[in-house]
Write the structure tokens for this entry.
Amino acid sequence: GRELAPRLANRTEDQVKAVQIVFQNPDSALNRSHSIRHILSRALKRLGGLTGKALDTRLEELVRSVRLTDRHLAVKPRQLSGGLKQRVAIARAFAGEPRIVVCDEPTSALDVSVQAAILNLLADLQSKQDVSYIFISHDLGVVRYLSDKIAVLYLGRIMEFGPSEAVFSGPHHPYTEALLSAVPKLDRTESARIRLDGEIPSAANPPTGCVFHTRCPRKIGAICETQEPELIEAEPGHTIRCHIPFEELARLQKPTAVEPA
């Protein structure tokens, strides 16, 4: 037991370094009483094991990587804009050179004008640092821009999973279809907005059968209420959890062309 304990402790520390998170609201994620230098230096000490000159050098690199400057190091989070605070939070997440970064709606608390800059920063860091993101968002435009693969969840169940373009081009799970119907389109196709009726059930006490059946506009009968559908591969790498066959979903969801005025 005594010999195993240090090994378990080291494994936990390695896991902490490997997986980091960028929270939705940088105001609550950063300590307002500490300077940016203190916040990032602490992360470099804890996650990178750096001290002295090595810490100072890595701190400079980290600040430049998120497009901040040395003058930002002396200030405190409350003196920064929302976008700059989120850059600090991103820098802290990358202090330990993680393999995976969980991004919990990292742009939802920011002005629209700032969101694009943060997304471009995340994309740039991803390519340079060879890191993977688990990106959680309700903004489908953001999801499409940043994601290689998408999992659509409802009450904690994966309803659809696949490459980004396959999920967006369809056919879709009925829940995905409803989500995408709310996105404005620039092409000449017409699709009515699908509004889901009823209250969202409790995740602690989900409905029997398909968890989406209480709100599903394409419910086909009692089977939806009694049997939970399996994730079926509609096409290579693209799976859908629905009792409606893939070919039927394709027919039902076929877009209608709009004649030019």
User: Anything to note?
Assistant: Strands lie at 19-22, 100-104, 132-136, 149-154, 157-163, 189-190, 231-235, 238-241, 256-257. The two ends are 77 Å apart (CA to CA).
